[in-house]
Amino acid sequence: MGTPGLLMPSRIGRRTMRIWAIALTVAAFSPLVIWPNLWRNAFSTQFLPHIYCYLRDQQLIWLHLVSDTLIGVAYVAISFTLVYLIRRARRDIPFQWMFLAFGLFIISCGMTHFMEVVVLWKPVYWFSGDVKVVTALASVATAISLPRLVPRTLALIHTARLSEDRGIKLEEANRRLEQLNQELIERDQMKTALIRRNMAGMASWEWDIQNDTIHWIDDPFPLFGRNAMELRSIRRLEAAVHPEDRERLQNVIKKLLESGEEYESEYRTLSPNESVRWLTARGHMHRRADGTPERLLAFVIDITNRKQAEEALRTSEKLATAGRLAATIAHEINNPLEAITNLLYLLRSDPGNKELLSMAEQEVARLGHIAKQTLGFYRQNPNPVRINLMDTLEGVLVLFANKLQTRSVKIERRYDFKGELRVNSGELRQVFSNLIGNALDAMNSGGRIVVHTALAESSYVGPSARITIADSGLGIPAENLKRIFQPFFTTKKDVGTGLGLWVTNEIVQKHGGVIKIKSSTNPARHGTVFMIWLPLDVPQQRSSAA
User: How far apart are CA 232 and CA 229, in angstroms?
Assistant: First the structure.
């Protein structure tokens, strides 16, 4: 292929450069030999200098003097720059002889301008003409040579463009290759992580019964929250099992040692950080010839996800049953509620009862709303209204006044925010009633409840009102905190339904808010804090599918 060869610059050595320089110089000064008068009369001064032609006008003289001097200096500087460039990069510059021709042409032009300065005072017009002849020859030689270089120059430009395009394509190909390589690395990492995750869901072990030593083949930490050294005996393994399942597992192992060969069991593990995992265990007992148990080979598989799915299904079935029951209850209590409302209306004729009757009517209305809400808790309420947050909290606290006094519980109010919120007033009163009621239930005798409102900036809901209800009760155990908002979960045994905090959480979320809980059972500093963030303005409540 001929095109790539055009990329190779013309390289000449110092000797070749000298030959070119001598040839150009001889060509430039050859007219002096052919035309003797050019050099014989070179320094003749029989003419008048230009200064007389300018009539000794100082401004005109200085104009020509300065202009010609600057042009000459510039030409000489350009020529020396070209020579320096050729000397420094002579191996990489194509058409070096053309650069030399340009240099001779340019320096000749500079000399003509210097001669214009000289003839202002010295009439050496023949010498000035000699310089112009040299300049003319250098110019003509350069002009004749240039057209011959045009095709090669264009070819070089075209080749350079092709090279640049190839470079761009090569760079793009390299970038794509790096991207593919990175994707392969990520896929390999994902595959490795998947394998590790699958392996993390299973662990096998061997129990040397004679020495009571367990040898773990796989890492037990993901399943038990403990390393192999912490589970090196059967007693330590049993200690890692959830207390409610420990006795059952001990009975299984006891029967296996007595007469069994195969065993299968399900139990929960409780890690030091109190996380719970469900495991299914299977094993085979190896015995000596006399029937004495020698070793047990077993493996455990993590079935936590399956158990959680089963629990979710059971909860769903409970909710469906509760929904049908709630529909019946709501239907049965609606008629008595209407009768009570009518009677309260008749009692309003006594002025002394108006305030108490008004509060009673509000609570009856709230009870009616709860009945309707029970029929369709997730239905969108079409009429949210603006309520004063402080007034709403005070209205709820009044309902618990007798209970607060009986139990010697003090209320500490800190209303840093006294503005309005656009909410469903009945639902919000129900939230506050549930939380304050729970706080009272946590304190049998004496204590303190803090009710605090403030403006806040929440990462969950943005600009919001924060409502804090804190008590100095016994606190909630850490293992119950994760389930506190689940339906039907209760710590009140016979008196609790397990729906209060679930309903509270659902109402807060329905209003676009968030509820958080902190609790401590430490005797030195026990109590529970509920914090609710509600948007300052909720144009439309969130709805959920029933």
Answer: 5
- B/e letters for 392-407, b = 16+ CB within 10 Å, e = fewer, are bbebbbebbeeebeee
- What is the number of other CB atoms lying within 10 angstroms of the CB of residue 466? 21
Tell me the pLDDT band of 58, cut-offs 50, 70 and 90: confident
Query: What whole-number distance in Å separates Cα of residue 435 and Cα of residue 502?
Result: 11
| Sequence-ordered strand ranges (E) for 377-487 | 385-388, 409-415, 420-423, 447-458, 462-471
Last residue of a domain, one of 353, 376, 399: 376
For residues 327 and 374, give the distance between their C-alpha atoms in angstroms, rounded to a whole number.
Answer: 7
Burial 31-60 (b: 16+ CB within 10 A, else e): ebeeeeebeeebeeeeeebbbeeeeeeeee
The model's pTM is 0.37
User: How many structural domains is the chain composed of?
Assistant: 3
Tokens 């008749």 correspond to 346
Residue 438 DSSP SS3? helix
> Of 20, 61, 21, 47, which is closest to residue 129 (Cα–Cα)?
47
C-alpha distance from residue 476 to each of 258, 301, 473, 492 (Å): 42, 32, 9, 12
**Pairing status of strand 447-458 against strand 409-415:** parallel
Q: List the domain range (segments joined by +) for residue 295.
A: 201-302
β-partners of residue 162 are none
Joined tokens for residue 116: 């214009």
Burial class (CB in 10 A: 0-12, 13-18, 19+), 481: middle
Kindly state the tokens that stand for 174.
Answer: 């390299």
Backbone torsion region of residue 358, taken as left when φ is above 0, otherwise alpha when ψ lies between -120 and 50, otherwise beta: alpha
- Specify whether 318 is located in the same domain as 353: yes
Average pLDDT over residues 33-47: 60
Tokens at 162, concatenated: 């092709």
160 shares its domain with 269:
no
pLDDT of residue 93: 59
Is-contact 319 487, C-beta < 8 A?
A: yes
Say yes or no to pLDDT of 163 above 50.
yes
Query: What integer pLDDT is reported at residue 48 of this predicted model?
Result: 66
What is the per-residue pLDDT across 210-245, written as a single tens digit (0 to 9) for each?
A: 899 999 988 888 889 899 899 999 999 999 999 999
Q: What is the pLDDT of residues 521-539, one digit of tens each?
A: 887 788 999 999 999 865 4
The residues pairing with 263 across neighbouring beta strands, listed in sequence order, are 283
State the CATH number of the domain containing residue 357. 1.10.287
| 44 and 108 share one domain | yes
Q: How far is CA 72 from CA 81, 103, 107, 279, 423, in A?
A: 14, 13, 8, 97, 90
CA distances from residue 418 to 206, 392, 532 in whole angstroms, order as listed: 66, 10, 15
| Rounded-to-integer distance, Cα 372 and Cα 426, Å | 11
At 9, the pLDDT band (50, 70, 90 cuts) reads very low
Please provide the size of the chain in residues: 546
Helix (H) or strand (E) holding 118: helix 96-118
